[in-house]
Amino acid sequence: MNDEKIFRAEIILEQMATILFAENSRSPWGRKLVSLANKKSLHVDDFKNQIKEMYGGMGSFNDIVLFSDDGNIDDEANQKFSALKSELYQLVTFSPAS
Q1: Closest-CA residue to 19 (of 83, 87, 93)
Q2: What is the pLDDT of residues 10-69, one digit of tens each?
């Protein structure tokens, strides 16, 4: 994973957090994403592993569903979030550590 891909992953994490904070200003997942995006001292393998760990198990990243203020599922926000989530996964899964 080169510097360009790490930078892109950080941007994606921040964009995803912004989507989550728009729904809930105190989103625990939003805080986690921002924290991970700001961890500049992590080794690239640790960075990738921490991201990959968010995708598995009950209560994981994959369980997030966004709702609009009227209580209906927010299709637009969910599609954007899902696209970012997929791009992030591809960055950390299909990239060599270097």
Answers
A1: 83
A2: 999 999 999 999 988 888 999 999 999 998 778 888 999 999 999 988 888 889 999 988
**Who contacts 58 (Cβ-Cβ below 8 Å, separation ≥6)?**
none
Instruction: Determine the Cα–Cα distance for residues 49 and 54; give it in Å rounded to an integer.
Output: 9
Rounded CA gap, 61 and 58, in Å? 9
**Residues 60-79: pLDDT tens digits?**
888 999 998 899 999 999 99
SS (H, E, C) 61-73: HHHCCCECCCCCE
